[in-house]
Amino acid sequence: MRSVQEQNGNHEGVATDETVSEIEEIRERLAAIQRRTQVEDLPSDRREELVDQEHRLEARLRQLSDEVVEKESGLAEDLVDEEGADADEFPALPDETTDQ
After folding, report:
1. 3-state SS string over 14-28?
2. Per residue of the chain (100 residues), what is the pLDDT tens digit?
3. Cβ 11 vs Cβ 81: under 8 Å
4. CA triplet 58, 65, 11: central angle to 5 degrees?
5. 8 with 72: CB under 8 angstroms?
């Protein structure tokens, strides 16, 4: 899986490979927890502990996802700002449709 950085070019402020790795790790841990909680003979206190851990991991996953969206949004704003700066560098061409 390509990182968000690779997908969007290597712009600053984009989700780091570390964030992407953490998201993938959390997803793997959640899958493992879900497999374990499906075991019939799991003691109820252990099952509750795993469910609590699952909820914490899901909350962290949402937090990381929000951070990625926020960083990508910041990147989009930066690109718009850069385009505006480029427009300032180059004066507009005269409108050839008007009579002079």
Report:
1. CCCHHHHHHHHHHHH
2. 444 444 445 544 445 788 888 999 999 999 999 888 887 688 889 889 999 999 999 999 999 888 888 877 776 666 666 665 555 556 666 666 655 5
3. no
4. 155
5. yes
What Å distances lie between residue 37 and 49, 52, 72, 75, 85, CA to CA? 10, 11, 35, 40, 55
Distances (CA, A) of 52 to 32, 33, 34, 41, 42: 14, 10, 12, 18, 15
Instruction: Kindly report the number of other CB atoms within 10 A of residue 4's CB atom.
Output: 19
CA distances (Å), origin 33, targets 19, 47, 59, 99: 21, 9, 15, 73
Q: Is the pTM of this model over 0.70?
A: no
